[in-house]
């Protein structure tokens, strides 16, 4: 038994792992098109990491764009208050 596993935690079966990997594959745009082809668990996990990284980069890029936009708008303008209400 792994030292990371807490005592009394339910054991995950191989079937549950296969089901979870299959569900994860369906969520990934890169693998969704290949639904009929079962990707290996390592491929699904690798693509998951890539997808999360791309989402993180997209969030950073959007945050930068929003910061630049806000810096060009007068703080008391109606546009600034609408933008601030959307992000709070």
UniProtKB/TrEMBL annotation:
One GO cellular component this record assigns the protein to is: nucleus
Entry annotated with the keyword Transcription regulation: yes
Q: Main localization of the protein?
A: nucleus
The GO annotation for biological process reads: regulation of DNA-templated transcription; regulation of growth
Q: Any idea which GO molecular function terms this record carries?
A: protein dimerization activity
Which stretches make up the BHLH domain?
1-55
Where is this gene product found?
A: Nucleus
Q: Which UniProt keywords apply?
A: Growth regulation, Nucleus, Transcription, Transcription regulation
Protein name per UniProt: BHLH domain-containing protein
Q: Provide the species name.
A: Mikania micrantha
């Amino acid at each position: 038994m792994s030292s990371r596993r807490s005592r009394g935690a339910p054991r995950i079966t191989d079937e549950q792992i296969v089901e979870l990997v299959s569900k994860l594959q369906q969520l990934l745009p890169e693998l969704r098109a290949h639904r009929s082809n079962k990707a290996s668990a390592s491929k699904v996990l690798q693509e998951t990491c890539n997808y999360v990284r791309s989402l993180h980069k997209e969030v950073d890029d959007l945050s930068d764009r929003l910061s630049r936009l806000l810096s060009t708008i007068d703080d008391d303008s109606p546009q600034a208050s609408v933008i601030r209400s959307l992000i709070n």
